Amino acid sequence: MKILIVEDEEGLREALIRTLTGEGYLADGAADGDEGYQLICTGLYDLVLLDIMLPVYDGLEVLRRIRKQGFRVPVIMLTARSTLEDKVGGMDLGADDYLTKPFAMPELLARIRMVSRRGAGSAADSRLKAGDLYLDTQTYTLSSASGSRSVRLGAKEYQLMEYLMRNPDRVLSREQITQRVWGYDADAEYNNVDVYVSFLRKKMKFVQTGARITAVRGVGYELEAEE
Questions:
Q1: Do residues 10 and 29 share a domain?
Q2: Fewer beta carbons under 10 A from the terminal one: N or C of the chain?
Q3: pLDDT at 2 over 70
Q4: pTM of the model
């Protein structure tokens, strides 16, 4: 899971990034509402931690804008303002949860898990489907409808496969993939994408799927997943 922390207090923002990274999440930070809005609009994030008191645009304005644009990414509001009016205002705009500062990290992690489960739905919904290709988001297992074989993916393989399967028949640039899988601040190079695509192609061949990852010259890759 990739999480964006939109928080202008640098110390808290960096502490959250360290904690979430230590828990196995991918985490990026934004220091103001405009930067946060622009990053959310990339579609790279699975969950947003959004402070209300932000420079440029406050958190409620960011939330209003992304919901108006149709982005349904789960949002947990973080704020020192704990009045009922503030909470109702955030929820009415489409916030998924609300956490008042100061908060304990274990409580935040529990809220993240709760919102993630809420979005995941039932156990039957734990599999992503693209054409005849299936990816179990709980076990990292790749399989197909046409064969009896399955294979478990490594962490980076899973993150890349998940991104492709959430965007079937759409060209994703190497830059988009690198930011999604390795993060903005990582030292990963674009050729890492080519290496991991090669790994995935071999595993897709093993599970006998009709889906395929095609290269778009000079741009990136596309998962062709027709039935």
A1: yes
A2: C
A3: yes
A4: 0.62
Domain containing residue 51: 2-120
Listed residue (71, 14, 17) closest to 44, CA to CA: 71
In 123-209, where does DSSP find H-type helix? Answer: 155-165, 174-182, 190-206
The DSSP H or E segment spanning 93 is: helix 84-93
Helix (H) or strand (E) holding 34: helix 33-40
Residue 187 sits in a domain of what CATH number?
1.10.10.10
Is-cis flag, bond preceding 102, omega within 30?
A: yes
Give the number of other CB atoms < 10 A from CB of residue 43: 13
Residues 161 and 81 in one domain: no
One domain, residues 32 and 113:
yes
Residues in the chain: 227
Find out whether 46 and 3 touch, Cβ atoms under 8 Å: yes
Q: How do 172-173 and 212-216 pair as beta strands?
A: unpaired
- Domain-ending residue, one of 120, 139, 168: 120
pLDDT above 60 for 207: yes
Instruction: Summarize the chain as % helix, strand, coil (round to 5).
Output: 45, 20, 35
Of 59, 86, 120, which one is at a domain's C-terminal end? 120
What would the pLDDT profile of 74-105 be if each residue is shown by its tens digit? 999 988 766 666 667 777 788 888 888 888 99
